[in-house]
Amino acid sequence: MLLLQALWLMSSTPGSYLYTGEHTVVTPILLLCSCVKRPGIMFNTGIGQHILKNPLIVNNIIEKAALRPTDVVLEVGPGTGNLTVKMLEKVKKVIACELDTRLVGELQKRVQGTCLANKLEIKVGDVLKTDLPFFDTCVANLPYQISSPFVFKLLLHRPFFRCAILMFQREFALRLVAKPGNKLYCRLSINTQLLARVDHLMKVGRNNFKPPPKVESSVVRIEPKNPPPPINFQEWDGLVRIAFVRKNKTLSAAFKSSAVQQLLDQNYRIHCSIHNIEIPEDFKIAEKIQMVLKNTGFSEKRARSMDIDDFIRGTSQHYGFKETLYIQNQFTLLTLTGVSNHAVSSGSRLDTV
What we know:
Number of helices: 12
Structural class: alpha/beta
Shape: elongated
Number of strands: 11
Helix content: 25-40%
Mean pLDDT: 80
Distance between the termini: 62 Å
Largest sheet: 7 strands, mixed
């Protein structure tokens, strides 16, 4: 019992080769530590608390991040601080965002009384509901429930950061890097790749976490494109949202949805009313949409096989006319323009379609 207590005290010392109870330990005698449950902590898997315990994976992630002594690092979901402590040894500052106040206390204890304490800033709360601070790099074992919204919050953040090294559920990670024709290629794929270069770095098995999740994981590198493409992302996302609802159908078929046509018709009439544009009595939105798709060469294309350049090329040609359809939240739903380098675009709020 005394030996275990001694090992426990040693494991809480920052900078040592021992880790807290949830870690895999690297020396034979210290294997005892991996059998000791940390008192007082029950990890809440309902909010994605799966602590990365393998020090080899931790070190590999930090190596991939290529951290600099002058870096400010954003970490989301630091847990008990396995990644945090290692990064504090290498960078100027770590800003850790944690929802669970119990784990905030554990993290504070881990650096208390050391030279690392002054380099750690902890923000308590939901990272999706707060403004992101300035940072150079983001390194995180994310709660998987917030993967998609956090990725786009990150990519739309300004000023630009250098890169992000993030742990995701394996299937989500593969969707991020999927190319046209791949069965996992989806709206997430094209939107992420529009704004960033994305690389799959490594696979991480379930047993590297405590408690182990039900799914396999992967680490991904995301590097934002700077400068970003000259496209209104909210408008772009609206078009992609419609196109990928049924990605195996032609776009002609996708835009024949009664819900889509009803929304387009309603907002086109609102737009015309605002801009004093007369609508012919025999006007039919379905005919207008099909004419647009035919003239842009989109009619027989399928989203599953279209890349970013396909969408942009199809909307950057000169057709000598301009029509705009607006949705209720005032984002453009479908723009046809005779000006080069403008994207056919749509509003991002089509959740009811």
